[in-house]
Amino acid sequence: MESTKQGATDRNQPANQINVSTKKNPNFYVFLGKKYLEEHEIIELHALGNAVSISVIAAENLVRNNYATFKEIKTKTVEVSGNKDEKSKKAKLFITLQKSPQFAENMAKFNKIREENEALKKEEQTKQ
Fold first, then answer.
1. How do residues 19-38 score in pLDDT, each as one tens digit?
2. What is the 3-state secondary structure (H, E, C) of the chain?
3. Which of 59, 65, 79, 84 is the most exposed place for a label (fewest CB within 10 A)?
4. Exposed/middle/buried for 112, CB within 10 Å: 0-12, 13-18, 19+?
5. Quick check: is 111 in a domain?
6. Would residue 125 count as lying in a domain?
7. Is 88 among the domain residues?
8. How far is residue 57 from each of residues 20, 67, 112, 121, measured CA to CA in Å?
9. What confidence tier does 85 reach under pLDDT thresholds 50, 70, 90?
10. 51, part of any domain
11. pTM for this entry
């Protein structure tokens, strides 16, 4: 049985798929995307309805900071069931990202900066 990560809710979904929700902010999905890219060459962000804008922001941040490159973007109209068994159509966005050649280098830089910031924070706390 495959292990699933947070964001992977359906047992039948691929291990490299992230289902984007409106309950979390784009920065969460940037963090999650970097974690997935550590294990996979290609990841997919899937978003339905209002979560589309969150997935676009997260994907753009991953690309802008050279963690990934856009491989494919596609949309589909899907039928979803509502609370009272009412069916409605919603837009679903699929963003496929490929790990950037500079991924490892950028992760190393990010971790170094994070460690420096944590050290500064500890230093400030000891002065108080």
1. 999 999 999 999 999 999 99
2. CCCCCCCCCCCCCCCCEEEECCCCCHHHHHHHHHHHHHHCCEEEEEEEHHHHHHHHHHHHHHHHCCCEEEEEEEEEEEEEECCCCCEEEEEEEEEEEEECCCHHHHHHHHHHHHHHHHHHHHHHHHHC
3. 84
4. exposed
5. no
6. no
7. yes
8. 11, 14, 25, 29
9. confident
10. yes
11. 0.79
* CATH number, domain with residue 90: 3.30.110.20
C-alpha to C-alpha distances, 117 to 106, 109, 112, 124, 127, nearest whole angstrom: 16, 12, 9, 11, 16
What is the C-alpha separation between 80 and 82, in angstroms, rounded? 7
Q: What is the domain range of residue 40?
A: 17-100
C-alpha–C-alpha distance, residues 64 and 76, integer Å: 25
Under a CB-based contact definition with an 8 Å cutoff, are residues 104 and 88 in contact? Answer: no
More confident residue, 45 or 128: 45
Rounded CA-CA distance 124/128 in Å is 7
Domain count, the chain: 1
Amino acid at residue number 21 = S
